[in-house]
Amino acid sequence: MGETTVLQVSVSQQHWAQSIERNLKRTLEHIDIAADEGSDVVLFPEANLTGYDFPYLVELDPRQVGEALGRVSEAARSAGLYVICGTIQRRGSAEKLLNLAHVIDPKGEIVHEYAKIQMAGKDERRYCRPGNKLSLFEVKGFPATMVICREGRHPELYRLPAMAGARILFHPACSTETIEALWWKRAAGRAIQPAGPNASIFHCCANTVGQDYGGRQSSSGGSFIKHPTGLSLAEADWYSETVITARLDMTAADGRYALASAEQPEFLRPYYERVIADLQARKDERPE
Fold first, then answer.
1. Residue ranges covered by each domain of the chain
2. Class of domain 6-282
3. What gap in Å lies between CA 272 and CA 54, rounded to an integer?
4. Backbone phi, then psi, for 194, in 5-degree steps?
5. N or C: which end of the chain has fewer CB within 10 A?
């Protein structure tokens, strides 16, 4: 058995342009794999249940999305682990959708939800609207935060929660590009960058693989679990649907770089204090 300072994390890498039925099937399979590995939490890619193919997902029946999320909640309870999964769906009477990540605890209850703030491609900007809070929650008692896909390029979204105590970043992603842009991104080292070196926290990224239905766009894979130093503890390849797992010694994450920014320069300190207090006050709000 692991010590109480250890968090075992599994990360799922899935195809991004498939039917909701197929997405649910693969999600349940990967929950079983994570449970068999003895993990405490399994992280899924951005919108892994609905997929990220907008012409398809926009037409999904909301009841079907709710039922799929319910099935995942049941699986989390059965497996006795945390599950972080994603949907894109309408909330309330708003015309535009929210890109959501759901944290489900080992009792099968949704204990935290985060809505993506920084929209990415033209379809997402057309169909989705931004959330209005930062993410702060706990997994097995360890403070955590979350960003979705391109939000990793907005470090304030995870450094501010690190100032508030978060020591691990969960990063669901669907890094889709044209084939040429994807290869250039890899060659130039512009794929998803580790958060550890500028925050001193663990970073777990679940990315997607595969091409859209037209064969024009592809996703870059390369899901990872990284130490606060930025070194890899586990990595996936560019093409396979798979699960990777690592054991994290949470004492290695102290958030010192983010905390130092909150202290100096001195004239900014009171502003950071107010922002962190507001972040904590809003963390349990349900995205609507």
1. 6-282
2. alpha beta
3. 37
4. -70, 140
5. N
